[in-house]
Amino acid sequence: MCPMPSAETTPTSVHEPEPVRPTREDRVAAAGSELIGGPIGWRALLGTSWWTPVRVVALVAIGMFALGLVQKAPCYNGAWFFGASSQYTHACYSDIPHLYQGRGFADGLVPYFDKLPGDMDYLEYPVLTGVFMEVASWLTPGSGSIQHQEQWYWFVNAGMLMVCAAVIAVCVSRTHARRPWDGLLVALAPAFALTATINWDLLAVALTAAAMLMWSRGRSLAFGVLLGLATAAKLYPVLLLGPLFVLCWRAGKWRDFGKALGGAAVAWCVVNLPVMLFAFEGWSKFYTFSQERGVDFGSFWLIWAQNSGHPPTTETVNTLAMVLMLLCCGGIAALTFVAPRRPRFAQLAFLIVAAFILTNKVYSPQYVLWLVPLAVLARPKWRDFLVWQACEVAYFLGIWMYLAYTTSGDAHKGLPTQGYHWAIAVHLLGTLFLCVMVVRDILMPERDVVRRAGDDDPSGGVLDGAEDVFVLGGAAHPARHAVHFDVPQVEWGSQGPSVSTDRSL
Fold it and tell me: The pTM is what?
């Protein structure tokens, strides 16, 4: 790594604040940097080298994605096709090759318009995801055996999803302008690499990350359009409008919220209305399927159902899950209005999506992708992020071992039911842990690593530095920028790392 130049040669600018280096403020990041030669040098930090933060983050994200593809090699070489349990024991399952034939793409059926053979009468995915799947089928060679076509279909989708992964990492790096290296948390997230090609969730995650970037730049309409497109690919992105509403209420930014809401509504309608008008039954399948779906993998509802002599009905779970989600929304709104400083947009975005995941009746392992970029923007603390990721990796292994147990017959290879319940509990506790840390940062803003560096709300766009017009309790009205707190800095000398207190942030 490049050494720090002297004051006479350092290419600084009085107009641009110094980028935040995780290796100076985070002990885990500092220790981890030793694997690649130590903390980043000043040439790379200030962009005078080709190795700018965004380029490094993008390349690392692509490299980790490629490792995730290698992890799927046992399935690609036969486990998807020759044995139900082997794709679980190797933890390399993916929906993509199975749905190529199972959802009519191999037969040239048009999603939402053509009925499917079997129990699933129409494609059960939102419209924009269906378009993504259809485009991938056009790029898949139609010659050879069905196994060969399914392999190609997975590869084509993997290539398209790799672009989405790079977009996500780059958008996160650019959202907090002074914290570009936080994007490495996305790029290096092990659960991100392991789950990226299980399903098509990365499309919605990429559009959501791009929307967050647009909002951070003050482009409210572009944010709304991208969020509307994301919602047309997956339902969860629409939840971000709730936290944005209460934040704009506190800051009095109604015009910007209106532009965001209008852009989201128009973009969603442009994608959905043509299919809704000409193939309503097929279009509505996603929504009816979500409502009628019973308690499924990964949720605490499953633990209740499998340990109860009288498991709850689907209608009961739907009602209770909605009540719990509404309570969480009310709690987040109250937290927004009573917090001593207005919460950052990314913090509330993470909390609302985490609440949906925790209360939902199903948690597929790829749902962790929804939270990864939001978690990095909400709390870019390496220790806490890696603790949460370890819990998600444990769940990733747990669900496949449980499915191996249930599909291996009398051999009973894998994890029994009670063991799987513990894996679910680990996932739930890991997500709750990160939620608690984010709530603590909101209630005690001096502990927020983003605000300790001197920022207010880098992802907040028009909310960044805005004054409050509506608060409850003793919350302060002016949205003052953070004072310069004493932050432990890791300095690197000839004897290795040493910790000091630096007030020069």
Answer: 0.87
